[in-house]
Every structure is written in C-alpha cells, then in structure tokens.
Write a structure and sequence with these properties.
The complex is a heterodimer of chains A (505) and B (111). With 505 residues, chain A is α+β, with helices and mostly antiparallel strands. Helices cover 28% and strands 27% of the residues of chain A. Chain A has 3 domains: 134 residues, Histidine kinase-like ATPase, C-terminal domain (Heat Shock Protein 90, 2-Layer Sandwich); 136 residues, Aminopeptidase (3-Layer(aba) Sandwich); 226 residues, no CATH class.
Chain lengths: 505, 111
Amino acid sequence: MATNECIRLTLPNDLSYLPMALLCVREMARKVGFPETELSKIEIGVEESVSNVIEHAFDVGETGTFDLTCERMPLGLSIRIKEKGMPFDPAHLPEYQPGGDLEKASGPGLGVFLMRKVMDKVSFHNLGMDGKETRLVKYLPSKSIEQYCSEAELRAPPLTSEPAVIKEKIAYDVRGLQEAEAIEVSRCAYKSHGYTFFDEHIYYPERLLKLNQSGELVSAVAVTKDGTFMGHAALHFPYVGAKIAEMTFAFVNVEYRGQGCMNRLCEYLFAASGKQPQCGVYAYAVTNHVITQKVMAKFGINDCGLELATSPATWTFKGIASEDDGNAQRISVALSFKYLAPPARLTVYPPPQHREMIEALDRNIQAEHQYMVPPGTGPSLPEEASDIEVDLHAVEQNADVCIRRYGVAVVRELRAILRDLCLKQVAAINLLLSLEDPATYFLTAEFEKMGLFFSGILPQTRVGDALILQYLNNVALDYDKIHIHTDMGKRILAYVKAHDPNVVG
Amino acid sequence: MTIVESRQGDVLILKVKDRLDSTTAGAFEKHVTGAIEGGSRLIVLDCAELNYVSSAGLRAFLTGAKLAKSKQGRLVIGCPQVQVKEILDMTGFSGILPISATLEAAVAACS
C-alpha cells in the first residue's frame, strides 16, 4: 500500500450510514497493518466522533453531509471527520470522570473520553468558513526501547566524581541512520534523557526508521570505526511542506562526550544534500544548563526567543549536572534560528510596542525586512470565524495556538480558547501571530490585555514570519534560575521578564 | 444486534449478540428497560457473543442498571469478551457495574 494512500467518503448526517463508515475505516486499518485486536478500538474512536457530528453539528431534521477521510501515515492511520455544521466544540462537553458509583455515574463526555482513550491523538479544529474538523491518529503497535532491552542495559552508568569519559581522541564517522542502528538511538535517548523527550517516537526504533524513510525525520549518527554507536541528532519537519525544521533529538553516549560529536552531527545535518529544509532550522535549548545553547551558538543558530515553562519540572538529564541542582520549576527553553538560504525581504507589520526588539531579533538571525505601519486605526477583519489551530501537548502541559486567519471575533475566540486551555490545566501557551498580516500590528495589544506577553519571533512558520506571545497559567517562575549563554539571549530574557505581567514589582 | 432471552429462576438472561453501537443501543435499551418495567428486576446481560461496545452501549448498560436498582433489582454483566472488558475497564464501568467472568457466576451474583 502506498505511503500516502487515502480514501474519502462523503456521508449524510444520518446514523444509519454509520455501519458503512465504520466498515470502511476497519478495512482501511486492516490494510495499513493494524492487528485484529486494534480494529475495534479504531472503529470506536471514529464512531464517537461521527455520532458527535451527527448529533450536535446539525439541527434536528436538518439534512447535511460530513466528510470522512482515512489516510495512511508513516506510523499508522490518520482519520479526519469534517463538517460545516453548527458551531460546536466537543472539547466543551462536560469532562467524563471514570470511577464513582452507579448513582453518580452519567454519560455526558463519555464519548470524547473514550475517543481519547482508544486513539493516540485526538484534536478538534475550527477551519473558519471551511467548517470544523476532528482529527484522530492511531499509531501501529511497535515496541518501545524498554521492550527491546533489559533494565540493566538501559541503566545509565552511575554518576561518580569522574564519569567514564574516553579522554583520548578517537576516529569516527558521521552519516545517515542505518536500520540496525535505530535501537541504539532509542537506547541512547533513554539513557541520557530518560522518558523526557516530548516526542515519544524517539523511544520506538521501528517508528524512528519509518519517520526517516518518510522524510519527516532526517537522522545523523556518529559511529566509531568499528561501528559502535556514539551519538545522534536529527532534523524534524513539523508538517508536510514545512519550510523550516527543528534540530532535535541530540544526544551523545556519556563515554563519547568530548569527542566533538555534536559539532560534527550538526555539520552533517546542515549539509545533508536534498534533505535540508527549504529555509532554515530552529532549535529549543533548555535553560537549566547552557551546553546545548553553546552548541547552537557555535553553529550560528542564533537566539530569537524565550519560551517559559514549556516542560514539567521533573525533567532531569542523566549525566549532565544542572546548574541548579534541586531546581524544581518548569523548564524554559531558548529558541534559536538559522537561515540555510538567504532570506527573502518581507513586508512585515510588527506591533509598535515591540518593533525595536523584533528588528533586533531579525538582525540577530540575519534577516532584513521592510517594517511597515498599516493604514487606518484598526484592523480590517472579515465577518467570519477565525481559523485558529490549537495543538495541545497533554503530557508536557503546554499548548501551541496558531492564528492562521483573523476573523471579526478573534479576540473573543482567543479568550475562549485560553480559558478552555487553562481549565484543562495547561501551564504554558504559545501563540503564533503572522507578522506579515497587518492585523497583528493592531491586535497584539488586545491579546496582551488577556495576559499574553512577548516570547520572540520565528521565521517561515505556518503563518509565515511569526511573532510569538506566551501565556503562563499560574506557574511559579524564578527568572534567576533561567541560564542563558549569549548576550542576545540575556537581552531577550530581560525583555521577556519586563513584559511578563506575572512579575510583581 | 440481537437479543435472545432465557431464564434461570427469577433471573432474566439477555444474551446480546454482535454490536452495541449508536445504531443498535437504542433498541437494546428499550428491550432492557421494557423487561425491567415488565417486572424482571434481576437481569444478566450475557455478553459472550457481544464483540463491540461504544459509549452508546455503555450508556444503555448504565440506564438499565439504574432502573433495575430503582426497582430493588440488579443488572450484572456476564462473560464479556476481552475487547469489551477492556472498554469497561478504561471507562471505569468495571467499578460501577457488577461483572462476572462466567454466566453461572453472573446468575449467582444477580440472585
């Protein structure tokens, strides 16, 4: 079956068509390779979504249709249910709480709860004039590194006053990932970082291979002359057609630190012919130590933002002493960027209160744009719903919100999204606004009134060159525990702190 | 979805076959509530041949169980298949509704 094989049905909003839809999904899932034990779960996920649409997206007696799309992905199956019915957000249904007793048990929210349990990813998207879409993802079963290796094999060497680092320089190669090495990559990731990478795929060797085969991930490995695995780094393309890729999954086995592995891995990725991103690479470097920031700076991946409190406080790094042992606060990350091709000169509309900083950040990443002030005293917005994409990362308790198109009620819509995320106890929210859209010039101040504040910029995102604002939901943050390597990074830190409404005094 | 009725003493056994989903749960619920309103307070749902249950089916279980309890009766789920038991576990229904691995145990639990 071809990697991008896709089937699409348009069905009436009539439950009597449900068996047809589920049969189609079941057979598609079987074709993709799901075992019999998983097929019913996939059907249940689709049934819950379809019945939500039929019951809530249309008036009683109203005839309409919805689209069901099933598409094979490198790691499994993607299912989308799209309709142009009434505004309805399943995320606003009461949250079903399992447990309790018979008297208190009730049904509302059970469908969404079950959907989330049987599928690996569930998200709801407002597409503006194009309607609404529920997206479901199910990954093919695959073994994690813990199922490949014994506990003893996964255990990191005990920390002593002198780590077992090989001091003499050794000869080694840096190249693309070979199939047999995927398990070593996952093992190294686990030993150096535990189960703390946001993206769990790194812990599944089969998934790593499939992602490299599809091009979503471009891995580089360092191996000794006798084939011993030393380290890994990768470029991750966040979506099909992405013009920028994230430098990520960078780690080196303890004994080989000091051999210049990371530098050579980065050199390889930047030169990987035919596999580089069209425009540039970006990276998030933790701020509880500065090791990664130093590597980024060395390769000219320069600071362009600071995202606060993005990951849980329990993240520790095996073999790398934090500069604040006992630092219990959520971890912030420094955002940096490097163009791999000369950037185009864009017309951008930075909000006046941040223009100077945005221009400085652009210079820092070697971009030169035309900074304009739009005409008029306010944004000209279409009389339609905004197109706002929300990507919730439940494990990390953070969310990315991207305004792809402003509508007339965008302030109210965003406020509702923020409230919903806060009620879900999301700790940190990042909001991407297009700097190429004149409305951003006017609307940033309105968003800041909601408690959002400056985070940074990022070129060539889904919305073009973007201004990033951030929101912290009752997060205790000590700025003195954020460690920054570069001068511009320190300037960004001071600027972010100065605009953080949570800072008292 | 089909339902086959049988009795063991005062216990009405409803053998539910095939699927309980959004298209069949309504008829199932009507059958169960009708039986309870008709005087059958002790109900065993024999799920040995039930191979699919969605939230619609679970809600029907709940409605039947609450109605039976309101009549000083009892509704017990008997011999669920592995995939159905998994759904009952993940939604917490295993802790709300009595479930027995065999039909005999379900009838005994009901009596």
